[in-house]
Amino acid sequence: MPDILLVILAVIFVLGVAINIHELGHFIVAKLFGMRVEAYSFFGLGPRIWGFKIGHTDYRVSAIPLGAYVKLYGDEATAPLEGGESTNEKVPASELYELRPRWQKFLVMLGGPFMNIVLALSIPFFGALMYGVPSTPDPIISYVAPNGAAERAGLKAGDKIVAFEGEANPTWRKIETGAAISPEKPLPISVERDGQNIVLSITPARVDKKGQGIGDVEMKPETGVEQVMVTNVEEGTPAAAAGLQARDRIVSVNGANVTNSGNFMTLVQANKDKPMTIGVERNGERLQLPVTTYVEGSGQVRIGIGLRGIPSKVREPAGVGDAARFAVAANYEIIALTGRVFGQLFSGQRAVRDAGLSGPVGIVGIISSVVQDEGFAGLFSILAVISLNLGVFNLLPIPLLDGGQILVLGIEKVLSWFGRTLSMAWKERIQLTGLAVILLLMVFTLFLDVSKFF
């Protein structure tokens, strides 16, 4: 399948599912309360261009390829985006959205974000049930880059990290993500070395990744025993001269067994001043290849190959309880990390361009990278993240979003205490203001996406 077609199908799948599960939430809750649904556009906003009718509901494709919508009879606040005002069909008052109690309207608005969050929880939950949960070995350092952030902090291969940013027994993922959002900022870290607890401070180096500055601790974890495979051999390097080939499995360095990719890099670094022989397995045959090394400006010793570690045990079996805890923890980690980033953004500790905000181009780029690297199976993880973000974002009190409509319901409730109501004209003005805010956000994130290319 051509790459461009694969990417198009992947984008349609991820965004189509994330958006439609949201609208399905509104649709289901409205139906449960007996509200009449005039239209369900599963693709696009604005006027209808194609569709079919089942019962009272018109299922359609709309003209503007930006999202989807569910149009309820009696809800005219967003009519311009939903194909115009309702038809002249006579509808019983009991089925009109506008005449329903506010608590029912509130639940209809909540239905969309709720379904997004359910989807975000379901994907890691069922993934854990089917394939197990990822094993989490102790955060032991297997490799420290020369002159890197970890070495400058005094960390060494073999150290066990026992605390990071005040959190005891952190996972390696929390160490990496915590460092990623704190480039060039000192972070407390404690390690266990030779039975002693040593308190240090590490300042993640700032590296540029796809136009965004992130922090890198410049060290690798001890991942346990894994197969170390050569993914590519650079032309004109010592590895190419020695005869190493892609798909070779590296088994030793100067007779010392290689246990994982970090261990291999440490062995190469340790043997930089000695003649080096690398043992590889190729098509079932063991070979001993003499290799020279070269030193980069950073002090990193290299031979000119790319590596990939294949762990011997990636996941552990999980029951329903373990799968549920894993799903909640995975989603909480995303929300907590996003909250920290926005906290840094509003406090001035992080530049907007480094906040990781992605617009349409950025999201398509992320989906494209995932589907090309991991295939369609890899899309479920990105679908969970996008669905979670869509659900949480829609709860923000911005007009046009579900959170904004919930806010309007609150304003109406307060006005009712004084015998007043919010007119339809004001509701339409509020929604149009929200549309302007959303369009500005889209233009802004699009600018950030494009600027990363330069």
Low-confidence runs (pLDDT<50, min 5 residues)?
Answer: none
- Level of helix content? 40-55%
Shape: elongated
In DSSP terms (H or I, runs of 4 or more residues), the helix count works out at 11
Biggest beta-sheet profile: 6 strands, antiparallel
Layout: helices, strands, pairs:
Elements: H1 3-32, E1 37-43, E2 45-54, E3 57-64, E4 69-72, H2 102-131, E5 133-134, E6 141-144, H3 149-152, E7 160-164, E8 167-168, H4 172-180, E9 187-193, E10 196-202, E11 205-209, E12 212-216, E13 219-221, E14 226-233, H5 238-242, E15 249-253, E16 256-257, H6 261-270, E17 276-282, E18 285-291, E19 294-295, E20 301-302, E21 305-311, E22 315-316, H7 320-346, H8 360-374, H9 379-394, H10 402-416, H11 424-451
Parallel strand pairs: 1-3
Antiparallel strand pairs: 1-4, 2-3, 5-22, 6-13, 7-8, 7-9, 9-10, 11-12, 14-15, 14-21, 15-16, 15-17, 17-18, 19-20
Helix pairs in contact: 1-2, 1-8, 1-9, 2-7, 2-9, 2-10
Write structural notes for this entry:
This protein has 454 residues and is an alpha+beta fold. Among the domains are: 3-33 and 100-123 and 386-451, no CATH class; 141-221, Pdz3 Domain; 226-313, Roll (Pdz3 Domain), CATH 2.30.42.10. 42% of the residues lie in helices and 24% in strands. The chain contains eleven helices and 22 strands. It has helices at residues 3-32, 102-131, 149-152, 172-180, 238-242, 261-270, 320-346, 360-374, 379-394, 402-416, 424-451, and strands at residues 37-43, 45-54, 57-64, 69-72, 133-134, 141-144, 160-164, 167-168, 187-193, 196-202, 205-209, 212-216, 219-221, 226-233, 249-253, 256-257, 276-282, 285-291, 294-295, 301-302, 305-311, 315-316. Strands 14, 15, 16, 17, 18 and 21 form a six-stranded antiparallel β-sheet that branches. A four-stranded mixed β-sheet has the order 2-3-1-4, with helices on one face. The chain has a four-stranded antiparallel β-sheet with strand order 8-7-9-10. A hairpin with a 2-residue loop joins strand 7 (160-164) and strand 8. Helix 1 (3-32) crosses helix 8 (360-374) and helix 2 (102-131) packs antiparallel against helix 9. The mean pLDDT is 84.
